[in-house]
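Our working data are protein records whose layout never changes between entries. An example says more than a description, so a record of this kind follows.
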Amino acid sequence: MSPLLLAEGLALGAAIGLVLGTVGAGGAILAAPGLILVLGVPHLAATTSSLVIVVAAAIAGVAPRLRSGTVNARLGLTFAAIGAGGTVAGSLVAGAIPEPVTIGLFAALMYSAAWLMWRERPDDERMARPGRLLVFATASGVGLLTGLLGIGGGFLIVPALVLILGVRPHIAAGTSLVAIAAGGLIALVARYPTWPEVPWPIVVVVGIAAITTALATAPLAQRLPARTLRRLFAGVVVAVATVLVGSLFG
C-alpha cells in the first residue's frame, strides 16, 4: 500500500469514526462513496467493505456509552429487527415509484426533520418511554424508507428517535449505533458471497482509524449540551438530503 493510499485511508476512517462517534449516524454515507471515489475500490466490494467498517466503528462507539448508561440497547435492537422487515417491504415496491419522486419526497421529509431538530426543545432532558405500537410504527417507517431508497438508514434513526419517540439526544446517539451495528451485521451475513471481493488491507486501515476515532469522540459527545447535539444531528440530516437532491441532477 502506497503512503498516499495509506494517508487517504486513515483520513476516511477518521471521518467515519468522527460522525458515528459524535452523532451516531452518517458513517455509511461517507464509507461507500469514500472507498469508491477516493480509494478506488470497485462498487460491489465497496458496499460490503463499508458494512465491515461501519459495524466495527458503531460497536466501538457504543462501548463507552454502555459504561456511562447513555444508550438504550433494547430499543436499538428492536429498531434493527423491525426495521429489517420494513426494508424488505420497501425494496419490493421501490420499482413502482419513479426515483425522482421518491428522492424528492424523501429530501423534503429530511429537511423538515432537520428544521424541527434545530428548534428549541425545552424537554431535552426528559427521558421518554415510547409505547410499543409507536416504536413498531416508527421502526417500520424507517425501514420502509431505507428499502425505497436502497441506501443505509442509520441517519434516519436519530431524527426518528428524537422527534417521534421523544428520546433524549444523548440516548438517541447510542441507541442509533446499536441499531446500525445490529442491522449491519445482518446485512453483512447476507452478503457472504461477496466477502472474497473485499480488499482487506484497505478495510483494516480504514477500520482501525474509524474505531480509534469513534472511541475517542464518543465520550466527548456525551458531554455536549443536548441543544448542540441536536444541531449536529440536523447538520448531518441536511447534508444527506442535499446529496440526494444533487443526485437527481447528476
Observations:
- The chain has one domain: 3-248.
